[in-house]
Amino acid sequence: MVNLNTVLADMQTLIETESPSADLDACARVVQVANEMLTQRLGSPGKVINVAGRDHLWWGAEQPKVLVLGHIDTVWPIGTLAEIPFAINGDKLTGPGCVDMKSGVVQGIHAIAAANLPGVAYLLTTDEEIGSETSRGLIEQAAASAVAVLVLECAQHEALKTARKGTSNYEIVAHGLAAHAGLEPEKGINAGLAISEIALSVSKIGSAELGTTVTPTVIKAGTTTNTVPALAELSIDVRAWSATEQQRVDSEIKSITSSIPGIKIEVKGGINRPPMETKLSMGLFSLAQEIAPEVGITNLANAEVGGASDGNFTAAIGIPTIDGLGAVGAGSHARTEWVSVSAIEPRVKLLAEMITRLLKA
Ligand SMILES: [Zn+2]
């Protein structure tokens, strides 16, 4: 049912087509290569959809019951392949983007071929690594009719990913008034002091118990060493497991004030990727656990991870979503990334069987 040599050859083809997210021509090329592969393995081509100059690829049903989701851009610049060529040594397959996530993408093609049923769409995007600005609408559109979204990012060690934190970003600007720090500092309004006070107070908004982090990151203030700062800025990185927590932090940050008279506070930014919550993934995880022993996977576990993926978008619109169904390996975004060859076949079978049971349910 699954021919490992064909799968490995397809992985080589896709990995050897370099595709850094920012390079639109390279992304268009990898879409062509993936589309040829889809045509060859699934019998029909996908539709190339251009959004704001960038190509994405949609194969299969227009209103799918099951959406399989992946991305074919990587974080690696053109030329990385020459330094880290595609190779297989023992159980380790290497090459730029192998674990994040071209091997997973190829596993997806062969799983859909094995399931061989109507009602599936396979969406392959090219801007995941830079925030999915042009693909988010397509992802939400493809997911809207689905009973399940299966995301092919790599496994966490061997575990499926059942929760991902949501992310929010803010910039707080404090406007004060400049004055000479030696002659008449009392006539100034110190924006630097105001932003320091705010940095301290926002750092207490997080919740260790709920895993919500609110981290002041970039802080800037003032112009010269003898001037009361008229302007100060603070960037804040927020991560949360639940939408409720994300909203709580959002309203607290947006209502922040200063105790310094005359300071004006401006808050920019907001919620970026919503969290992928376990309530939308655990049903799919149970299904995967039920199938796992039948395909030779023992002790399939689940993991909750801090980083976000495109699965965050589909979970946020209420569609059951699970992630980590792609390659087993390690080293995303690192030069040491690798994929386990012996794990390929069981993972293709697991995915094929999940697709089949979801379509028949
Ligand atoms: Zn990825």
TrEMBL record:
The segment(s) forming the Peptidase M20 dimerisation domain are: 162-257
Keyword Cell wall biogenesis/degradation (UniProt): no
Keyword terms, alphabetized: Hydrolase, Metal-binding, Zinc
Q: Which SUPFAM superfamilies match?
A: Bacterial exopeptidase dimerisation domain, Zn-dependent exopeptidases
- What cofactor is needed? Zn(2+)
A single GO molecular-function term is: hydrolase activity
Q: Name one Pfam family in it.
A: M20_dimer
PANTHER family given in the database record: ACETYLORNITHINE DEACETYLASE, BLL0789 PROTEIN
Q: What is this protein called?
A: Unannotated protein
Q: Please report the organism this UniProt entry assigns to the protein.
A: freshwater metagenome
Lineage at the top is:
unclassified sequences, metagenomes, ecological metagenomes
